[in-house]
Design goal:
The chain is of the alpha/beta class. The protein folds into two domains: about 15-65 and about 175-350, QueA-like (3-Layer(aba) Sandwich), CATH 3.40.1780; about 70-160, no CATH class. It has six helices and 21 strands. The protein has helices at about 155-160, 200-210, 240-250, 260-270, 310-320, 320-335; strands spanning about 15, 35-40, 40-45, 60-65, 65, 70-75, 80-90, 95-100, 115-120, 125-130, 145-150, 185-190, 215-220, 235-240, 255-260, 270-275, 275, 280-285, 300, 335-340, 345-350. The strands form five sheets. The chain has a nine-stranded mixed beta sheet. Strands 6-7-8-11-10-9 form a six-stranded antiparallel barrel. A two-stranded parallel ribbon has the order 1-20. A hairpin with a 2-residue loop joins β9 and β10. α5 packs across α6. It is globular.
Length: about 350
């Protein structure tokens, strides 16, 4: 799936991107701003105060995938220097890749074609086909993601020469540690599951002491720079039987199932069978939208997504369009910062 039948309905003015991690601004991870959006109003807080807006019996579902260094300098035949984003390793040995402009990956290069070659150190990648195979750019300007065959050891080259995927809005490059979360234990994500970045061990301890539970899922993220109208690509996920049992117990007990990020939402909703979460793993193409709403997730902790990004549809589906619109308008008006190093939102649409 590459194009969406739906488009986000909420609209807001151009946001401000966070150009650096909060630690580089002298702010602790858990001191970023937190906008709490409920039906009875909007509250401004700090992430460290999350526990004041949750209640005993709530369950936070977190992604335990850890970010890898998946960006590396390369040469595109006939073009010269480019930046390679190694998005997703496929089961047959091919990779899903994105090629962006050097030196800061500011924009995608959309005029690739089968047979083009990319040289990344000792590794050669040959463009095979759009990804997915039936894909066409929703912008009409060329495809962004491609399947590529690989000659050489790409994983080793990324470990030796790679860096975290980053984009042109950052003021400089930052180390991989800046892209790791307190929950990350299973390497495999191309980009950070950033909704869980503000959590610290101290905050987790505080939440547990308040009776808030945690349940891990795994979803290895691809690249997040979707064009308008472009759905997330297939991603590998796992929901363990233990997590499935925790979620079902929470639901039976009247607690709220709050996903920490779009990745946790996607994984959990991909594990629903006949209205219940069951232990499962594999590749998911599930896209949560208002037309295909969540069956299990009742709340959401998230960063802030760009106008027309497909992730906005997930926010609308969980929060409801009216609450999502009010929250995004307020976040822009109050100067919240966007993207992976930015501020956070807590959406609690229920009573």
């Amino acid at each position: 799936m590459n194009a969406l039948d739906e488009a986000p309905r909420i609209a807001f003015d151009a946001p401000t991107a966070a150009p650096r991690p909060p630690e580089a601004r002298g702010i602790a991870r858990d001191h970023v701003r937190l906008l709490v959006a409920r039906q009875d109003g909007i509250v401004h807080a700090r992430f460290k105060d999350l526990g004041e807006h949750l209640r005993p019996g709530d369950l936070l579902v977190v992604n335990d995938s850890a970010t890898e260094a998946r960006e590396v300098d390369a040469e595109l035949d006939g073009c010269g220097a480019v930046v390679l984003h190694a998005a997703t390793p496929l089961d047959d040995g091919d990779w899903v890749i994105e090629i962006r402009t050097a030196p800061d990956a500011a924009r995608a290069i959309l005029d690739l074609a089968p047979g083009r070659r990319i040289q990344a150190g000792p590794v050669t990648l040959t463009v095979a086909a759009p990804y997915p195979i039936e894909a066409s750019s929703p912008t009409g300007a060329g495809n962004r993601l491609w399947r590529a065959t690989v000659t050489g050891d790409l994983r080793t080259h990324l470990r030796r020469r790679g860096r975290p995927i980053a984009y042109g809005y950052l003021d400089r490059g930052y180390p991989l540690s800046a892209y790791r979360t307190v929950f990350g234990r299973r390497p495999g994500s191309a980009e950070m599951p950033s909704a869980s970045r503000p959590f610290t061990r101290r905050l987790v301890t505080d939440l547990v002491s308040r009776g808030v539970g945690f349940a891990p899922i795994t979803l290895h993220t691809g690249v997040s720079s979707q064009e308008a109208g472009e759905a997330p690509a297939a991603e590998w996920f796992e929901v363990s039987p233990t997590t499935a049992a925790q979620v079902e117990h929470t639901r039976r007990s009247g607690g709220r199932v709050i996903a920490v990020g779009t990745t946790a939402t996607r994984a959990l909703e991909s594990a629903v069978t006949n209205g219940e979460v069951r232990g499962t793993s594999g590749w998911t193409e599930r896209v949560v939208t208002p037309a295909h709403p969540p069956q299990v997730v009742t709340g959401l902790i998230s960063g802030w997504h760009d106008p027309q990004a497909s992730h906005l549809l997930l926010v609308e589906a969980v929060a409801g369009i009216d609450l999502a619109q009010a929250a995004y308008a307020e976040a822009v008006a109050a100067g919240y910062e966007w993207h992976e190093f930015g501020d956070s939102g807590l959406f609690l649409p229920g009573p």
